[in-house]
């Protein structure tokens, strides 16, 4: 406990409960998920860049979505893995905590903005196919991606700033595996109700990201459904156990599933993968 209303300058992450053997098992599981996530999404990026058959706006957006998935999981998972190997509690400085929370929220918001753009792209392709190439030209696609990135990062500056204006004097123990905003607010000695009330509508807007495709819907249901649980609540200081599960869905499961959801259902991507594997085999034989 901290007295005299002095604010914490570092935070101890409690992580996952259980024995060291359980932590090692969790490390192996999450390391496998993380490795497959990096490999799968990197393959998507490379194929979209080199294969001429994947030069449409949908695949252009998919390449950027894969890059965002790599970023969002790399902001959280390596810290979580390191914490599972440590015999004691993991410590993050206030600066590291601010940086992690901002990057996580900013990249996540960018991802949902891009999902919204992908939804619009599919809507135009289905409902206005004759003008699709005119509307979704290369210049438009580039600007959509730029706006998504800029909006994602700018929109999270004030929420993160407002979060760290509180005095964290109750404790410096965060019952989580990363600097989660809801758990940070639990440590505040100040009244956070107004800030949570303001943050509530800011978390609602990505719900506009819908799609006509089953793969998009699956992705949105898993990713955005978890975000709804975490952030779209007037009171964000919910039970840590449920908070951790929802965070795992966002930072581990969704990036892991991305290559399977968006590629294995797509014939062009499967053909590009087969051709790339054939070329690699031929190069190895020579």
Automatic annotation (TrEMBL):
<keyword id="KW-0716">Sensory transduction</keyword>
<keyword id="KW-0472">Membrane</keyword>
<feature type="transmembrane region" description="Helical">
    <location>
        <begin position="59"/>
        <end position="81"/>
    </location>
</feature>
<comment type="similarity">
    <text>Belongs to the G-protein coupled receptor 1 family.</text>
</comment>
<feature type="transmembrane region" description="Helical">
    <location>
        <begin position="209"/>
        <end position="232"/>
    </location>
</feature>
<dbReference type="InterPro" id="IPR000276">
    <property type="entry name" value="GPCR_Rhodpsn"/>
</dbReference>
<keyword id="KW-1003">Cell membrane</keyword>
<protein>
    <recommendedName>
        <fullName>Olfactory receptor</fullName>
    </recommendedName>
</protein>
<dbReference type="InterPro" id="IPR000725">
    <property type="entry name" value="Olfact_rcpt"/>
</dbReference>
<keyword id="KW-0807">Transducer</keyword>
<dbReference type="GO" id="GO:0004984">
    <property type="term" value="F:olfactory receptor activity"/>
</dbReference>
<keyword id="KW-0297">G-protein coupled receptor</keyword>
<feature type="transmembrane region" description="Helical">
    <location>
        <begin position="101"/>
        <end position="120"/>
    </location>
</feature>
<dbReference type="Pfam" id="PF00001">
    <property type="entry name" value="7tm_1"/>
</dbReference>
<dbReference type="InterPro" id="IPR017452">
    <property type="entry name" value="GPCR_Rhodpsn_7TM"/>
</dbReference>
<feature type="transmembrane region" description="Helical">
    <location>
        <begin position="25"/>
        <end position="50"/>
    </location>
</feature>
<feature type="transmembrane region" description="Helical">
    <location>
        <begin position="141"/>
        <end position="161"/>
    </location>
</feature>
<dbReference type="GO" id="GO:0005886">
    <property type="term" value="C:plasma membrane"/>
</dbReference>
<keyword id="KW-0675">Receptor</keyword>
<feature type="transmembrane region" description="Helical">
    <location>
        <begin position="244"/>
        <end position="264"/>
    </location>
</feature>
<feature type="domain" description="G-protein coupled receptors family 1 profile">
    <location>
        <begin position="40"/>
        <end position="257"/>
    </location>
</feature>
<keyword id="KW-0812">Transmembrane</keyword>
<dbReference type="InterPro" id="IPR047132">
    <property type="entry name" value="Olfact_rcpt_6C-like"/>
</dbReference>
<comment type="function">
    <text>Putative odorant or sperm cell receptor.</text>
</comment>
<keyword id="KW-0552">Olfaction</keyword>
<dbReference type="GO" id="GO:0004930">
    <property type="term" value="F:G protein-coupled receptor activity"/>
</dbReference>
<keyword id="KW-1133">Transmembrane helix</keyword>
């Amino acid at each position: 406990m901290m007295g005299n209303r002095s604010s914490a300058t570092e935070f101890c992450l409690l992580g996952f409960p259980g024995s060291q053997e359980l932590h090692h098992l969790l490390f192996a599981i999450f390391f496998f998920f993380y490795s497959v996530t990096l490999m799968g999404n990197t393959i998507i990026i490379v194929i979209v860049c080199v294969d001429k058959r994947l030069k449409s706006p949908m695949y252009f957006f998919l390449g950027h979505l894969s890059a965002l998935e790599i970023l969002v999981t790399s902001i959280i998972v390596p810290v979580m893995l390191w914490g599972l190997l440590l015999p004691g509690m993991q410590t993050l400085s206030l600066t590291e905590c601010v940086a992690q929370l901002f990057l996580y929220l900013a990249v996540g918001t960018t991802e949902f903005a891009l999902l919204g753009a992908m939804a619009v792209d599919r809507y135009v392709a289905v409902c206005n196919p004759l003008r699709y190439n005119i509307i979704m030209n290369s210049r438009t696609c580039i600007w959509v991606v730029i706006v998504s990135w800029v909006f994602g990062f700018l929109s999270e500056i004030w929420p993160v700033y407002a979060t760290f204006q509180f005095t964290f004097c109750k404790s410096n123990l965060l019952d989580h595996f990363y600097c989660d905003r809801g758990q940070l607010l639990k440590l505040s000695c100040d009244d956070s109700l107004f800030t949570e009330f303001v943050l509530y509508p800011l978390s609602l807007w990505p719900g506009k990201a819908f799609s006509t495709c089953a793969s998009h819907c699956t992705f949105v249901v898993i990713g955005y459904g978890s975000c709804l649980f975490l952030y779209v609540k007037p009171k964000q200081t919910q039970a840590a156990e449920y908070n951790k599960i929802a965070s795992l869905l966002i930072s581990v499961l969704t990036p892991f599933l991305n290559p399977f959801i968006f590629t294995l259902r797509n014939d062009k991507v499967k053909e590009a993968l087969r051709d790339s594997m054939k070329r690699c085999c031929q190069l190895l034989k020579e």
